[in-house]
Amino acid sequence: MEKQTNGGILKKVWALLPWLWIAAGYALDVWFQLVPGKWIVDADLASEMILTNILNREGTILSHNWGYSTEIRAVNMQWFYRVGLLLFPNDWHMARTFGMAVALLVFVAAMLLLAKGIGLGRLGPWMAGALIWPFGMRYLVYAMYGGYYLVHMLLPMLTLALVFCSARAQSSKHKIVYALLACLVALGAGLNGVKVLMVFQAPFLLATLLLAIMALNSCGKTNWKDACWACAAEMQMAVGALYTTVAAMAGYVINTKVLAKNYNFKSFGGITWGRQRDGFFELYRIIADYFHEFGYTDGVGVFHFSGIASGLGLLVGIWLAFCIVRLIIRYKSLTVWERFMVLLLCSMIAVCGLSFSYFREYSQYFWYPSMPAAFAVMAIEIKTEKLHLPGERGALAVLLAGAISICSINTVRQQIEHPALGRIGVDKVANWLVDNGYKEGYASFWSGGGMVEMTNGKLDIWYSNLHNDDNEGWLQPNYHMTRDPEKPFILIDTQTDGAVEDIPLVQYGGCTEVYNDGRYVVYAYDSADAMHAASDAERAENQ
User: Fold this and answer.
1) How many helices (H) and strands (E) does the chain have?
2) Sign of dihedral through CA atoms 98, 103, 108, 113?
3) CB under 8 Å to 71, separation ≥6 — which residues?
4) Which residues are paired to 523 by β-bridges?
5) pLDDT of the chain along its 543 residues, tens only?
6) Nearest Cα to 251, choosing from 511, 74, 375?
7) Alpha carbon of residue 435 to chain centroid
8) Residue 21: φ, ψ to 5°
9) Helix H segments across 263-370?
10) By the 8 A CB rule, do 95 and 88 touch?
């Protein structure tokens, strides 16, 4: 009796383990937002809060008084931040933390729904947990902390999960409801621009086409009607890919034909084809980038904690490559849903790899929309591999979770010590400016944006390249293009902007040094005209 009781307790603990792991990863993300993340806000992230404040004041969905950048992103983090800012109107940091905490919960729920649609069973929470841990530097900065690519992962995978629900539903009514919801999410993704069409919808169509062709050719039927009935699940997935792509295309058309004419932003339509000199080796390098995004880091000591974590991240990438090959070999033994996920990941790698190789626009974080598919494939391999010893599948899941946890802890530690984007110490000079009555001024984009959020909007910063008074107008209120600051200051970060003696707006006079902490230097002008005069003098001397 005692053995049975102990066995029951162990089973309950084992069943709770993946949920506890999800909770631990979520707690790490929120803690990073709440504590160290408060002081390393980068300008892109701060711009989201500045825009959110404008949208809440206006009560609008999009603003005519804002200079958007390369994407208008109608369905993005602002929806979460807006709720946070309503709750914490005088504390932008708490508003952002609250919004991000809610967004991460929605993301976990969507990943659990996707895992259920695939049929991962007990491995579903492990898959969702892997995605909530910040295993890589860019994954932490651009997804779990900044949220820039969290939405680009959330919307496509939620679309896919709803297509799964529609295909699996027993009643026609439920099929239609799930299909409509999938179209609505896909429409929202398309409203954000062309990105999701390229990194998800095109591979989605390709994967379902391959799935359907292989199923039809092996079903043994001799006419189309019988073959389609025999391959009903595959055909439903193909139809799902088609109607969600149409919805995403509709969103993109609205983005380019309606929103682009009414709001200020630069479309990705300007990207051109550009074959790289390295040819095949460029494609190899870009695809290799993908398999290095699971925690591997260059330049760390092999036998230090960071080096061990980096090695584990490399092993996770190698494990993913093994899973893909192994599942392709065992393709026929998989369920329809498992086959599809393998084909989807391969299609995403192929489509994105070729696109990134030929487009004159590429960053490693462009790969992140495929991360949920990657961890789904890892879970499918563990679930379907022919293992005979008891507990082997659970042991593999725990080993993978352990590696991801170590990579994540190392990533967080490194970002606290050496943030990729934020400016260490800029909060001190920002608070000094507020305390000394300064309200409006100039700074480079990467320094100025964070200062606005850190002071809860008490500072208003015009972005300048510090060489002249040019202002591109991106990610700031439109009135920055029509009026000057009153009695402005200019902030120089000597580590990133250059030495003070190399800054023309300072060297051509009209300003006085009012702050210097060794890294950040602030000069004050009597008026904006004095700053413009310095810019004119710099231009005249260089003509």
Assistant:
1) 22, 5
2) positive
3) 192, 193, 195, 265, 268
4) 490, 513
5) 455 565 667 677 778 899 999 999 999 999 999 999 988 888 888 888 999 999 999 998 888 888 877 677 778 888 999 999 999 999 999 999 999 999 999 999 999 999 999 999 999 999 999 999 999 999 999 999 988 889 999 999 999 999 999 999 888 899 999 999 999 999 999 988 888 888 999 999 999 999 999 988 888 777 888 888 888 888 999 999 999 999 999 999 988 888 877 776 665 555 666 666 665 667 888 888 899 999 888 877 787 888 999 999 999 999 999 999 999 999 999 999 999 999 999 999 999 888 888 776 777 888 999 999 999 999 999 999 888 788 788 889 999 999 999 999 999 999 998 888 888 889 999 999 999 999 999 888 888 888 999 999 999 999 887 776 666 667 888 888 888 888 889 999 998 888 888 888 787 777 889 999 999 999 998 888 887 787 777 677 666
6) 74
7) 35
8) -65, -40
9) 280-291, 305-329, 336-358
10) yes
- Residue entry with tokens 């790698």: 349
Residue-level length of the chain: 543
Q: Which helix (H) or strand (E) holds 522?
A: strand 520-525
Do 490 and 520 contact (CB within 8 A), yes or no? no
* Tokens 């055909």 belong to residue: 235
Enter the pTM of the model. Answer: 0.91
Residue 529 burial (10 A CB sphere; 0-12, 13-18, 19+): exposed
- Which long-range contacts does 478-484 make (Cβ < 8 Å, 24+ apart)? 478/64, 478/65, 478/66, 478/67, 478/264, 479/65, 480/67, 481/67, 484/528, 484/531, 484/532
- The CA angle 303-308-313, to the nearest 5 degrees, is 150
The number of beta carbons lying within 10 Å of the beta carbon of residue 392 is 12
Structure token pair of residue 110: 């969507």
Give strand pairing partners of 264. Answer: 67
Tokens of 225: 């009607």
Closest CA to 508 of 471, 446, 466: 466
Q: What is the dihedral of CA 416, 420, 424, 429, to 10 degrees?
A: -140
Please give the full DSSP string across 232-263, using - where no structure is assigned: HHHHHHHHHHHHHHHHHHHHHHHIIIIIHHHS
The stretches of 119-259 forming alpha helices (DSSP H) are 124-132, 137-139, 150-168, 172-191, 195-196, 202-218, 224-230, 232-254
